[in-house]
Every structure is written in structure tokens, then in C-alpha cells.
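C-alpha cells in:
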């Protein structure tokens, strides 16, 4: 049984964590950099571990590691050696595993919840480019080139001991297909595949979420299919579309509904009309069984999910 299925056998909902970057900034880290949270792996790894701990304490059943934007190529561009880059990528998993093991070693933390998972973040090729191209997925790369890009980091994350891979903010089906191909080299490993979407039916590339879900249904190593880093108002419809085309668990961890400008790397201030936590309950009722938050969500949001799901 895969680790997500295992949790969903005992609990109706698996709770994810919220944003990492937002919390790192709250702790005083400067993320205005092409490496984004991957820069903090280099500079302040202890703060990353603290944020993972904060989310476990808020009720998260899963920590998503700081490897979203961490790639060997990206660190090499910054002047690190290949070996140093590989160590930092592995360290992203080790920090989350350490935080999880320390949390779980306290007996009172074990009541009424599953042992939390460590999901290694596999960001899209566009996140490595750091030019906002993950928001349209128009990379001009073929599947084979994307396979080569993803294989190296996925191997490092698996070697470091991740429980599952969080393939997230994927903007186009060809990149999902490339990742599914890489997984075949690691037959014991499971991944979730989460797309970023631009409206009620389409992922950022313009392809239909229904078609993506139907394609992934045939991939036994994909443990869940869904949506992240997407405005909350589109999510309920996207769940329905995906669910009609796959029997796999549906995972959603949208952002707060603010608009991100990839060029200035800034968020606009307009939030969603409804509180995030109210939306999460609606998404569960629509059929999502793995729910958390993406950009700008906080431990408070995760605590809110925990309150209705486990309270
Ligand atoms: Zn996000």
C-alpha cells in the first residue's frame, strides 16, 4: 500500500502543510532571489526545520520539503560544486525527516493522527528557470529533455529518504508524463502529481484537468492527482473534473487567491472573498481527500483544517 493510501485507510482526510516561503519570510529570511526557498537551505537550514515543526504542531500529516526550486543546475549557476548542490538537495529531505522524527518521538504528539510523511518537493522546470514560465508551461522542451532535467534531483530526493514525491505546480501534461517516466526507474517510489490551473477546467498550459487526470489514472506509481498554487475560486470545479476521470485520491492545496506577478516576484493584496478554511471544507465535500495550502497560507490555516477534520 502506498503511504497516502495508508493514511486514507485510517482517516477520511490527509492534512498537508501550508506555505514554506511565507513562514521563512516571517522568520526574517529574504527570499527575493532566483533560488527562492532553496537559498535558505544554503543559508539558514535551521529555520526550515523550525517551519516544518510549526506545521506538524498545527496538525499537518505531511511536510513538503524546501526542494521546490533546488536543482543541481540552479546551485551550479550560483557557483556551488555539483557535490555541494547534491548535498543541499538531500539536506532538504533530511531537515524534514529530523523535524518529523523529533515531533513523533514525543508520545503525546501521537494521539489521533497518523505518523506524518515527508514529501519531497519536485518543482517544475519553470521554477528552475525562475522566469515565471511555470505559469504557462510553454518551455519549448520535449518530454525526453524534461526526463533528463527531473531524473537527477528525483534520484537525490529518494536517496535522502523521502516517503513520497510531491510533484507540484506542474503546468503542462508533457512534464507530468516526463515525471511518470522517471518514476519507472524507481519502482518502489510513489508520487503525487499536482498541477497549477488557470480556470475552472484548465491547467496553466490550457490542457484540460480532466484529460490530465485520465492519463495519470493509468500510472500505478501516482498516488494522488490534483491542483496546487491555484486561486481558490477555481478549485471546486477542478476537483469535480478530475474526480470524474480518476479513482485516485484528489489532492488540493491552493493559494490564498492573491495574484502573483512572476516578474516583480510580488503578491497583490486582494485576498479571496471567503476565509481559506471555509473553502477547505467545501473541497472535502466535493471529493478531495488530501488538503493543505500553497503560497501565503500559514500554520493558522492548517490549524483551521485540523479543527474541522479532527476536532
Ligand atoms: Zn504556491
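Residues out:
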Amino acid at each position: 500500500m502506498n503511504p497516502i493510501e495508508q493514511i486514507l485507510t485510517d482517516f477520511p482526510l490527509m492534512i498537508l502543510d501550508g506555505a514554506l516561503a511565507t513562514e521563512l519570510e516571517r522568520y526574517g529570511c529574504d527570499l527575493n532571489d532566483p533560488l527562492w526557498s532553496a537559498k535558505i537551505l544554503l543559508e539558514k537550514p535551521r529555520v526550515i526545520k523550525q517551519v516544518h515543526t510549526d506545521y506538524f504542531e498545527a496538525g499537518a500529516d505531511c511536510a513538503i520539503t524546501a526542494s521546490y526550486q533546488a536543482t543541481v543546475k540552479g546551485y551550479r549557476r550560483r557557483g556551488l560544486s555539483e557535490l555541494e548542490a547534491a548535498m543541499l538537495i538531500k539536506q532538504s529531505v533530511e531537515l524534514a525527516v529530523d523535524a518529523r522524527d523529533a515531533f513523533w518521538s514525543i508520545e503525546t504528539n501521537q494521539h489521533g493522527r497518523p505518523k506524518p510523511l515527508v514529501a519531497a518537493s519536485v518543482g517544475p522546470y519553470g521554477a528552475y528557470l525562475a522566469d515565471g514560465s511555470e505559469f504557462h508551461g510553454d518551455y519549448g522542451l520535449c518530454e525526453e529533455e524534461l526526463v533528463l532535467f527531473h531524473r537527477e534531483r528525483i534520484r537525490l530526493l529518494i536517496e535522502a529518504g523521502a516517503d513520497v514525491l510531491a510533484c507540484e505546480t506542474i503546468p503542462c501534461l508533457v512534464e507530468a508524463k516526463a515525471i511518470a517516466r522517471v518514476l519507472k526507474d524507481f519502482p518502489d517510489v510513489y508520487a503525487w502529481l499536482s498541477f497549477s490551473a488557470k480556470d475552472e477546467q484548465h491547467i496553466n498550459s490550457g490542457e484540460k484537468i480532466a484529460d490530465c487526470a485520465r492519463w495519470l489514472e493509468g500510472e500505478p506509481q501516482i498516488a494522488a492527482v490534483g491542483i496546487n498554487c491555484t486561486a481558490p475560486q477555481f478549485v471546486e470545479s477542478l476537483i469535480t473534473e478530475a474526480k470524474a476521470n480518476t479513482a485516485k485520491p484528489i489532492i488540493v492545496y491552493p493559494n490564498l487567491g492573491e495574484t502573483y506577478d512572476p516578474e516583480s516576484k510580488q503578491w497583490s493584496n486582494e485576498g479571496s472573498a471567503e476565509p481559506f478554511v471555509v473553502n477547505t471544507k467545501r473541497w472535502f465535500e466535493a471529493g478531495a481527500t488530501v488538503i493543505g495550502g500553497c503560497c501565503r497560507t500559514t500554520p493558522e490555516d492548517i490549524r483551521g483544517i485540523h479543527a474541522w477534520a479532527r476536532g
